[in-house]
Structures are given as structure tokens and as C-alpha cells.
Design brief:
Blueprint lengths: L1 H4 L12 E5 L3 H13 L3 E5 L2 H11 L15 E5 L7 H12 L5 E5 L4 H9 L4 E4 L4 H16 L2
Parallel strand pairs: 1-2, 1-3, 3-4, 4-5
């Protein structure tokens, strides 16, 4: 069952998970998007937190009174340190402004205990250090999907 999650082109039993990827480093963004796309995910990538919010605003539909609009994404992959808005700030704004409880995987060149605590306090699923090892990234994505999305 786990092997099918990372078979290239896999659709996860008919489900094609949608991912918003935000990282200001074009090389990292391209590499992570290629891994996700190759593993059957549908990705949208942006170069910063403000750009991510702008994209989400375009997707947001007006919900009925008393309801919350559906999210256009199933989970997020966020760089912690982006110049315009950090990944932690972005996740907090998404949860406050849109009331979406999207799972988020964070990546960062800094791997301090304090940063890991900030990520967890913001509701992040995990923090991976850069440079990102493809196998570690895939394993973390698999855990995120199995833990938070397949239940």
C-alpha cells in the first residue's frame, strides 16, 4: 500500500493530491516540484509568502454565510525563511484569514530547536533541513498523507 503512494504517476487510489509549494529559492522550488509532480501530485509553486496569499485569494470562492470556502490545496510545502513573509507567518495567516486547517511541511536551511518549536507551535507537520534529501522528503510526504489525509 505504501509503495503505491510513490509510484511515479500514481494517483493514490483515484485521488490526486494538490500541493501549494512556496520557496524563494527557484532551484529548491523546482527540485521539490519535480519530485512532487513525478510522484503524482498536482503542484502550484510560488516564490514567496505574499505570492502564495495572492494565489489563494484568486482561488477563494464566496462561501455561504456561516460556512468556510473549500481550500484549493490539500497540503502545503513552505520554506521557513522567505523575504516577504515567513512560512510560519503564511500558515498562520491562511488559518486565520481562510480558516483552512491545511497540513504543512516546512523546509529550512536553519535547523535549530527553536525553529522546530515555532513550526510545531504554528501547526506544522514537520521541518526538513536544507539541502533536502529526496528520500527524506518523500518519506515525510508519505507520512503526512498517511497521517493527515487518508484518515
Amino acid at each position: 500500500m505504501l509503495a503505491e503512494i510513490f509510484t511515479p504517476g500514481s494517483r493514490f487510489g483515484g485521488v490526486r493530491y494538490r500541493v501549494l509549494l512556496a520557496d524563494d529559492d527557484a532551484g529548491v522550488r523546482g527540485s521539490l516540484a519535480a519530485l512532487l509532480d513525478g510522484d503524482g501530485f498536482e503542484t502550484a509553486n510560488v516564490g514567496g509568502g505574499v505570492e502564495a496569499l495572492e494565489l489563494l485569494r484568486r482561488f477563494q470562492s464566496a462561501p455561504s454565510p456561516g460556512t468556510v470556502a473549500a481550500s484549493p490545496f490539500d497540503f502545503l510545502v513552505l520554506d521557513v525563511h522567505m523575504p516577504d513573509l515567513t512560512g510560519v507567518e503564511l500558515l498562520r495567516r491562511i488559518r486565520t484569514e481562510y480558516h483552512w486547517q491545511l497540513p504543512a511541511l516546512f523546509v529550512s536551511g536553519e535547523a535549530s530547536i527553536e525553529l522546530r518549536q515555532d513550526v510545531i507551535a504554528a501547526g506544522g507537520f514537520a521541518l526538513l533541513p536544507k539541502p533536502i534529501e529526496p528520500d527524506d522528503f518523500r518519506s515525510c510526504i508519505r507520512d503526512l498523507v498517511q497521517t493527515l489525509l487518508k484518515n
